[in-house]
Amino acid sequence: MKRILILGGTTEARQLAGKLAIRHDVTLSLAGRTENPVAQGVPVRTGGFGGAEGLAHYLRGNRVDLLIDATHPYAAQISANAAKAARLANVPAIALRRPAWVQQPGDRWTPVGSAAEAAGLLGPRPRKIFLALGRQELAPFEAVPQHTYLIRSVDPVEPPLAVPGATYILARGPFSEAGDRALLETHGIDAIVSKNSGGEATYGKIAAARALGIEAFLIQRPPLPDMPSGAGVEEVLRLADQALAPWAGLEKRGV
Ligand code: NAP
């Protein structure tokens, strides 16, 4: 039985944890961003480690055999910390890197560097905007209060945005294309702002926007550190097996 630390907060991290826990001692780490995270099915620790050094200290102190970075593609800080901590603590590390969505015929995508850039590009004319963003990423839209916003988040947006027109929906994915299409139509939405999260669970709004000819401002992905990685759960399970095999690392150690 090997000790595995999974940096999670994603569906894939939860699925990986469940499969690896059959044969290994698995701990899942959450940042603690959501108030009531879904049950993870394995022991969970919550909250930051205190940077890369703090994570390295945790890896050494808990005799972790393998670190798996299965965090969200936009959680760039923890991914950078994971790569550095693995080096500092000399622990093998692998990652699940969920592929980005690729533009399809009919998509009206405008790539942007940040939520603030998207807010600046909405223009002076009042529009109806669906903000499919984390509640920590909404502040830039207060600078353009002429628009009406539809905001969907897992936890309530507290305090609410300082704009006159905002509707809040509390919901946790997965979201279907049909459901998101109905949402966009009901609220008369003419643009969405979203991260390019990849995966199926939140693709509904992208497909619905395409079907309705609605513009999508897509925040581009941050760069992530290079490490052995798989695009999905099964691929990462194979990498984990390789990394934990008795002969793994022998070459690196010069044996
Ligand atoms: P981040 O900016 O990469 O991380 C900031 C700090 O939070 C890290 O330095 C670390 O603190 C702590 N942290 C992050 N993930 C952790 C984990 N799994 N276990 C323990 N500590 C963790 O990541 P973020 O603030 O969580 O999110 C950044 C972006 O990713 C946002 O755009 C957010 O919306 C998106 N995101 C989306 C989802 C989703 O499911 N939709 C989930 C997560 C993040 P220390 O340095 O103290 O260790």
Low-confidence stretches: none
Category from helices, strands and their pairing = alpha/beta
- CATH T-level fold name of the largest domain: Rossmann fold
Look at the structure and give the mean pLDDT. Answer: 95
Q: Give the cofactors and ligands.
A: NADP nicotinamide-adenine-dinucleotide phosphate
Q: How many helices does DSSP assign?
A: 7
Description:
The protein has two domains: 3-99 and 222-252, NAD(P)-binding Rossmann-like Domain (Rossmann fold), CATH 3.40.50.720; 108-219, Rossmann fold, CATH 3.40.50.720. α5 (177-186) packs across α6 (204-212). The mean pLDDT is 95. It is elongated and about 60 Å long. The strands form two sheets. A six-stranded parallel β-sheet has the order 3-2-1-4-5-12, with helices on both faces. A six-stranded parallel β-sheet has the order 6-11-10-7-8-9. With 255 residues, the chain is α/β, with parallel strands linked by helices. The protein has seven helices and twelve strands. Helix content is 29%, strand content 22%. It has helices at 11-20, 51-61, 76-89, 115-121, 177-186, 204-212, 233-244, and strands spanning 3-7, 25-30, 44-46, 66-69, 93-96, 108-112, 128-132, 148-153, 166-170, 191-195, 215-219, 229-230. Bound molecules: NADP nicotinamide-adenine-dinucleotide phosphate. NADP nicotinamide-adenine-dinucleotide phosphate binds at residues 7-10, 29-31, 33, 48-51, 54-55, 71-72, 74-78, 81, 134, 137. NADP nicotinamide-adenine-dinucleotide phosphate (NAP) is lined by residues 7-10, 29-31, 33, 48-51, 54-55, 71-72, 74-78, 81, 134, 137.
